[in-house]
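Could you join me in thinking about how sequence relates to backbone shape in a protein? We need material for that, and I hope you will provide a protein of your own picking. Once you have written the record down, we can walk along the chain together:

…
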Amino acid sequence: MKPAANLSHLWPELPYLERFEAASAAGFKGVEVLFPYETPAQETRHALIRAGLQMVLINAPPPNYTGGARGFAAVAGSEARFASDMLRTYRYAQALRVPMIHVMSGYTQGEIAKDTMIANLKEAAKTAPKGITLLLEPLCPESQPDYFLNDYALAADIITAVNAPNVRLQFDSYHAQMIHGDAVEVFNTYCDLITHVQLGDTPSRGAPYSGGVDFPALFTAMRAASYQGWVSGEYTPNGHTEGTLGWMEAL
């Protein structure tokens, strides 16, 4: 397992481009950024090179600077906008050499939303550049009220229906615990679909070992499943980030 740092959350006291050096100094080889689009891709790329880091994940869609609604994956009637947003994201991902993109479902409900998301993902999987995997991540209502993809079983159903090798599941211990009450059980249930792991504790997305998630059991389950991917710290450090990195030693 390979530790990564989510630079949208960690080292919040530092300017964006300085967080890369901080992550490298802490021993990370990979980083992720939720929405890196406000900074020119080449500036981020240079920061990655200087720090000797790989960008492993970004989110889609990018911001809509015209002020209109985003073309989220599950929003019926926004299919053309979603396709356009994904093409923009692919260009950014290629510039940063990013292998994974978290595709957000958006804020909607119902079977039509599910059908829309399945259809959109089938097309997105076909147009994705070689080497890029699209990830689905359920988000809890406490964090994202009215978010469509709010259940791991729903995510698994959509991935199965899309039936594409480059559409997989993103596991987040904070969201899994908040949605289903036992992050370890969620990991064990869906480990065959999981390609990326993020760590945060409940109830307020604190650092690992600060709340309700059983991280020793989770790490044991990950090893038992022979998970070899990235494990990213995505949490609010509530103090110096360096003092919250003990979880790296458990991987």
